[in-house]
Write a structure and sequence with these properties.
single chain, 293 residues, alpha/beta, Spore Coat Polysaccharide Biosynthesis Protein SpsA, Chain A, seven-stranded mixed sheet, four-stranded mixed sheet, 8 helices, 11 strands
């Protein structure tokens, strides 16, 4: 528990929602990373999205004695519906949507708690943890291959929308979402096959929700796994991007970034410049450490 806090303040409580499709063994690692937190989550909700293998049984058996782990199995219908299902089962004030093949650094929830507790407009803020990418290791030790934090240009509605119109600034696993923004409804668009998290951030930014970034530290980061042989359908991704652009950017200057050829190249150039500048300016030695998983 952070020493700077007292029991006079209501402490944040977290529901961690983990959808899974044929990734039972990796989901066990993900849940273990949640259980090893220095600040305890209220609940960990595992949803098997109709896996044709034994993923559900592996996870349910592994955590049968863990009172905070709740396991559900639903008919296969996609990650968005699985997340929405988990949201409906959750009871925490703060929601984390952790992908089954990702991990949380040991201090993820503790650093989030410090940041949330110091924020005045908690219910209007999505907190974004730092994140790093790592390869699926051949041995017990993973190799860090990339570090990147979203650009921080301010916390106004326009700047949030500007950043999000160019790129999906952060992965879903690094976001800590207040239950209040859901307003008792589903968060994810179940009709989208790709970029459903990007659409969610744009939708929340349109509602004047602010994104606040937690200070970079590998111990409090989301660890995003890069997997060999896992690829996305580029046509489906392009169609999803066009669909989102038509809904959110049509009739605005931000539609420029979605124009094929020149617009897309210019968007990628800006993203590349931002990433280069951030890697040079955010030189945190602990972001280059290697860890055992």
């Amino acid at each position: 528990m952070p020493q700077s806090m007292t029991w006079a303040v209501k402490m944040p409580n977290y529901s961690i929602i983990i959808p899974c499709y044929r990734d039972g063994l990796l989901a066990i690692k993900a849940i273990e990373s949640c259980l090893s937190q220095t600040y305890r989550a209220k609940e960990i909700i595992f949803i098997d999205d109709g896996s044709p293998d034994d993923s559900y049984d592996l996870v349910a058996n592994a955590f049968s004695k863990a009172d905070t782990v709740k396991c559900y199995r639903i008919e296969n219908s996609g990650v968005s519906r699985a997340r929405n299902f988990g949201l409906g089962k959750s009871t925490g004030d703060w929601i984390i949507f952790l992908d089954a093949d990702d991990l949380l650094g040991n201090n993820y929830l503790e650093e989030a708690t410090i940041c949330i507790s110091s924020c005045r407009k908690k219910e209007e803020t999505v907190f974004v943890a730092p994140f790093c990418y790592f390869e699926m290791p051949n041995s017990a030790r993973a190799k860090w291959v990339k570090k990147y934090r979203p650009p921080i240009l301010g916390e106004s509605r326009f700047l949030n929308l500007f950043k999000l119109s160019i790129t999906n600034c952060f992965p879903v696993s690094s976001a800590i979402v207040p239950r209040a923004v859901a307003k008792g409804q589903k968060l994810f668009n179940e009709n989208l096959t790709h970029y459903e998290d990007w659409e969610l951030w744009i939708n929340l930014a349109n509602q004047c929700v602010i994104f606040r970034y937690i200070k970079p530290s590998i111990d409090s980061a989301t660890l995003i796994r890069i997997r060999n042989g896992v690829s996305s359908n580029s046509d489906l991704m392009l169609n999803a991007r066009k669909q989102i652009a038509r809904v959110y950017f049509a009739g605005t200057i931000m539609a420029f970034w979605q124009i094929p050829f020149f617009g897309d190249k210019f968007r990628k150039l800006i993203v590349g410049i931002w990433r280069f500048a951030l890697e040079k300016n955010l030189n945190h030695p602990n972001l280059s450490k290697k860890f055992d998983f």
